[in-house]
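sorry for the late reply, my laptop died twice this morning and i had to redo everyting from scratch. anyway the thing you sent over, i finally got around to it. pasting the sequence first so we're on the same page, its 219 residues, then the predicted structure underneath. double check i copied it right bc i was rushing
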Amino acid sequence: MAKQIDDGAVLVIGLGRFGTAIASTLDDLGRDVLAIEKDPDVAQRWSHRVRVIEADATNIDALEQAGARDFSIGVVGVGTALESSVLVTANLVDLGLKQIWAKAISRSHGRILRRIGAHHVVFPEFDAGARVAHMVTGRMLDYIEMEDGFSIIKMHPPRDIQGFTIGESRIRERFGVTIIGVKSPGQPFEYTTSATRVGPEDIIIVSGDSELLEQFANR
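ok and here's the structure:
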């Protein structure tokens, strides 16, 4: 590839649902994206949106010719074909990409990807399922699980804290979680202080231990 590649440019391999979501979102964010897709019809369909090269990424020579070595970030969107996923990931490792994100469809698949050098393994279906499960059981509007049992949720405020300040509600002392932000209707997001008052129409952002958050949200 003749032109200089920006350090933040991203190589996306495979334009299935996961790959296209990544590529189109990065494009919306103004990031330089190159997609590699072996299906000519799919490649043609997305060529109006992002730069697409029709090639088989399981072939390291094809990746070399596409300029994959010039990228520092790669996303392997190939997931359902385990052999192809492993081969593509291994090729990116051999090409020396500094950050390799790879989609996995099972825990065993994820372990293999990590062992061959993927830096980040994503389980989109499992993660989406777990996220929705948390949301349908209570007041949660969104749920993000970080690591080591720590999570962040978006929710409507429980009735017993409505009309009170964070300091008056003593959320941390009573429930072991922290309200880190409040969004009032028609107002910008606000980081909380002890003087922040929570209204009945507000949306609150709460962080803490996953189990404690579940208890707080489902009271």
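The first helix runs from residue 17 to 28.
thats about all i looked at so far, will dig more tmrw
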